[in-house]
Amino acid sequence: MKKISYFLSALAMLTVVSCGTTSTVPVTGRKQHILVSDEEVLSLSKQEYTNYMKTAKVSTNFANTAMVKRVGQRLANAVETYLREHNQAGEIKNYSWEFNLVQDNSANAFCMPGGKIVVYEGLLPITQNENALAIVLGHEIAHAVAKHSAEQISTQKRQQMGAQVLGAVLSGAGVSSNTSDIAQGVFGLGSKFSSLHYSRKNESEADYMGLIFAAMAGYDPSVAVSFWQRMASSSQNTTPAFLSDHPSDAKRISDIKGWLPEALKYYKPVAATTTTTKKSTTTKKSTTTKKKSSTKRRR
Length: 299
Known about the structure:
The protein is mainly alpha-helical. The chain is 66% helix and 7% strand. The protein has one domain.
């Protein structure tokens, strides 16, 4: 009877794990199973972001700050247009876009759910231009759009519940507590490596989606190769790829080269408005000159 009780407890935990919602990631079409609601994730994100910005030093470089906000908003507009055109307009309510440049010499950027994105000043010498910055911001926006944070939280929930299930089953089977602890420790180790691999999958998906988003916004996605090559040259990270939560530099660059033909299909360069204005002004001046010349002949 006792074993049946443990079995039922384990079954109940597995039932909780199986609950949640299934959705489709935009652009890639990948199915994902999430155990937390958008409201829960966004509430936590807002709280953490507010706390971070209270201690962060906002950049005093007005030109660079304006660039980050300009590029970010252009990408956000392109993403929202895509969602509307693909019957996913309901997702737009989850975003409250905000782009900030902070005083930090690290070559880094991060995104919180809901579209709260922070760029460190140390990244700009490596991006060097707006196109490369768009690659970074596109990648960060992709994390928000693909709900990678919610996925990671869901993965952790499954791992915790899995460990509890394993403990309950082993205890119910009469296994000693010491053996049970060791077994759960092994399970935890396996889960850790599984989680790392899962995170690398998220990073690769964000790389791909980021290329597409940059192209949709009128930024040349091909600059991603040279940007990541510069990032690789500046990186001091020697962590083996199989222990890292990011793809290796070589794999990331190789993947991007393979994705470029698809990304370029979305690329439509945005014409500079200044060029058009100058041409229009020149034409008007020419017309005015002709009128004066004609008046003189009549006299």
